Amino acid sequence: MTAPAQESVTTRLPVALARLQRALRRTEPSELGPGSIAALSTVRREGPIRPGDLALREGVTPSTMTRIVSLLEGNHFLARENDPADRRAYLVRITDAGEAFLTRLAGVRSKALQAELDQLTPDERAAIEAALPVLETLATRLAS
């Protein structure tokens, strides 16, 4: 790939992905911001976790995560439990209400995305499907 073409990919790809993510967020307005939804999704995926460890995984400060956890607890999406490894600490776990929220949100966003994918040509859909494994690899590499 030539230098101008490489620059085009490295500047256009993050913009396109961010615009897609923002558009999907608008399909289902939520009282939660993207950081809170990401934290809730991480708790769902990782299982009970200390807020400090959650802050590290999400790349935010502990004080920011304290605010996020408080918001999620206030919405009954997270619950605290004692950390069996350290009685002075606590873990947060997703609640049934948190599970239901994420499931509903994913369903609405998937439906909106499917409606747009249905408008693409078969070649455009094939191009997106072919790019997915590479995008997933990039995401994994950048996250580590």
UniProtKB/TrEMBL annotation:
Gene3D superfamilies: Winged helix-like DNA-binding domain superfamily/Winged helix DNA-binding domain (1.10.10.10). InterPro entries: HTH-type_Bedaq_tolerance, HTH_MarR-typ, WH-like_DNA-bd_sf, WH_DNA-bd_sf. It comes from the Bacteria. SUPFAM superfamilies: Winged helix' DNA-binding domain. Residues 10-137 form the HTH marR-type domain. PANTHER family: CONSERVED PROTEIN, HTH-TYPE TRANSCRIPTIONAL REGULATOR RV0880. This is MarR family transcriptional regulator. It comes from Cryptosporangium japonicum.
